[in-house]
Amino acid sequence: MQGNWVQHPEWRHPRPCLVAEFIQLLSSESNEVATREGRSIIHPDHVLRALAGLGFGSFVGEVQAAWDTFKEETKSKGARGGARSVQA
After folding, report:
1. Are 60 and 48 in contact (CB under 8 A)?
2. Domains of the chain: which residue ranges?
């Protein structure tokens, strides 16, 4: 379990409405971070800062690791001619 969370039997499978609400909250905050920087597109670093700003700083390391893995996998696929390369 992440951080200091207490595992409750009903929390093993979060309700879709809670997941959707979390995504909406994170998207909205990420958009605000991007807007403050004068950007019209949300970049991964905006999402990381939004997570921290919303009090989910304990998630940042894992999300960053997933992003790094995605970039590496995409880069190697791009080298083989599969997917196009992603720039960070």
Report:
1. yes
2. 13-79
Could you report the per-residue pLDDT of 7-66, keeping only the tens digit for each? Answer: 556 566 667 788 889 999 999 999 999 999 999 999 999 999 999 999 999 999 999 999
CA count, 13 A, side-chain hemisphere, 1: 10
Between the two ends of the chain, the Cα-to-Cα distance in Å is 29
Sign of CA dihedral 4, 19, 14, 17: positive
- DSSP structure class, residue 10: G
pLDDT value at residue 1: 41
Residue pointed to by tokens 């190697």:
76
CATH fourth-level superfamily of 13-79? Histone, subunit A (1.10.20.10)
Check if the beta carbon of residue 51 is closer than 8 Å to that of residue 57: yes
Closest by CA to 54, choosing from 71, 31, 35, is 31
Q: Identify residue 4 by its one-letter amino acid code.
A: N
